[in-house]
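mind reviewing both lines:
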Amino acid sequence: MDGFHKPQPNKAPLQSVISAVLRTAAKFGASAVSLMAGLLAASLMLFSAYVLYDTFYTQEKAFSSWELLSFKPQIITDGADPLDGQDKLSAINKDYRAWLTLYETNIDYPVMQGKDDQYYAYHDVYGESSLTGAIYLATGNTFDLSDAYNLIFGHHMDNEAMFGGLDKYSDEEYVNGHKSGVLVTPTRVYDLEVFAVADTDAYDEAIMDAGPDRTAYSVVEYLRNPSERTTVRYFDEEAAEDAGKVVALSTCLSAGTDARRVVFCVAKLKNLMEIELPSYDGVYDGLTHTVEASVNYPDGTTVEYSIDGGETWSTELPSITDVGTFEVVARATNENYGVAETTATLTVRPAPVTVYAIDSGKNYGDPDPELHATVEGVIGMDNIEYTVTRPGAGTDELPGKYEGAVVPSGDKYQGNYVVTYVPADFTITENEMAIYASGYTGMYDAKPHVPTVTVTVTDGTAVEYSVDGGVTWTSEVPSITNVGEMRVTVRATNPGYKTVTAEVVLKVTPRPVVVTAKNAQKTEGDADPAFEATVEGVIDGYRIVYTVSRNGGDEVPGTYVGVIVPSGGEYQGNYVVTYVPADFIINAKADVPVPPTPDKPHNPQTGGFFGDSAWALLNLICVILTVYLLMPVFHLRDKFGRSKLMKQLNGAAGDTHVEYEDVLTEDTEEDGEDEDGPLYRVRKFLRRLIAGVGLEILTAVAAIIVFILTEDMRNPMIFVDRWTPLMLLILLIAWIIDVRLARYREKSEEDPEDESTEKKEIGDVNEK
């Protein structure tokens, strides 16, 4: 068959399949488009959040951090060394040049200087990449800012960080309020004053070119007569007159890429020199006294002195020996920090003598002791006359410290001395007094409880109490009745005695109350009765709030343990409440309801064939009988007597078996008697005896254990329970074991038949 006439496939099933595939693709395609749209929206939200966070983080990072500000030089406020902090910055980054501050603005940054004018536009002060960059000095300027014209760059930030605040300097009123600043270098400090603000572009060489060859005068003149590319928005002619050194601050303007805002400041060397020269005012003692000035920046500073009002100067230290007085002028000069002067007076006076009264005192109620004083300053053997008294004696007698009460007195001038009399203190010491206090800790009993306080001195003693840590005091004794804790400070005061305090605790704990549900019952199909409970422990008529309900909705006849549940708050008033559940019985309609056992705990392990019971009398009898069967074990003499009889019988069995041990071979033990073997096998008997006694002991122990584990002495006796068959089985096993052991029991002498049988057996043995 040729290809043209080959059978063609049936297209109808294929079209159905294609249609089903297209419908499925359309269905899942719509879901996929929705999912992709949701993911795209979520991605856009996350990206927007990241952009906002990154913008906020970048702008906030543009401000000086607390760590960076900790290195800021503090010489403006406390005269510290300019190197303090700056040496740390230099150690962090060798490109550090100075610290720039414009007062009452956000411009408060270290100034860096890179290898070109682009490096610190994108690196921070630590040399790490940063969009905010750093404040930096033009590369053309000298590193120590000693040039007459210095140009400093900084990014324009919308949040006024870096140099973003320069936008406001287009307002003249703002400039007049924010003209001052400071520039601190490692060697010098310059006060800054804004004198001009100009807008220009990045290619204005008159402003943007900085270096050692530029003069401040040329910059000022250009600002007076700017080119068309520069717009001067502010110019202070008076300030510009003193522009011997200019610092320009440049930043971008948002108006254009190349647009720049430049703020020009006059930089003047700040006079930081401080000098101190102590005066000397002393007593003649024959010695030479010299004074020396101290300066805050000693390195490179020259200190000179003048004793003639500044006409002549000398680096020699001034001194004084003889009595007299004169003024000294001290001058400190430093080319970096300025010049400072101060004056001091050198004086030598007549030798003073001081009579110091000695502190004294006594115990409360004692007479005054003899008072004394010491004399200081006397040269040689000269004598000073004085007396020491206490003017307040007889009136100031209460305990306490009387400042200046011991008074020395005498003539002020005595010979070559001027005498000063210094009084002393007189202290009357309080007597000792003790206080003993105890608190209370106990359960709530509806009674008030107070602290117990005893003092060793009662006359004139006032006892006070404070419950707020000693802030307020009262003589009223605090008490506690309700549950809680109170800290009481006790204070005893008495004139003439030391005040003593003690602290005690009054604590009342909650009283336990038990809410016990009452057992209840109903007949199958009836509605639940109203559940009740009893409350025990309340002593003051307080009403415990609780509810009683039944857990579960079971309606099948039977006993439901602990389903009647009282509930409520654990802590109510002065009580802590415990809730005890009860049982619920549903009686079958045809049965007589069994009244619940009142207030008796139920053992869920019990409950026999004839009712809910525990302690079965028959079980007890089984235990007694089982133990009784064991009692012969403690009289093993009879049973071993049988063994002795067997030995005798074996000996009488023949002359060939005189020693029974010789004939009890393994064959006789396993297979019975051989043709010459004994009548009784003693070893087999002993093995059975030991095994039987062991089993009797095990059955007795098992009976006792089962009885202990299955019986509850708190419940009433029922004759039979579900454990009775097990107890009977144990008794039967014990009886069978005992019967097996009794097979070898000796015949009683009172039983003639047994005796004859025994004799016959012995005779038969002898005949054999």
Summary: Residues 11-61 form the longest helix (51 residues).
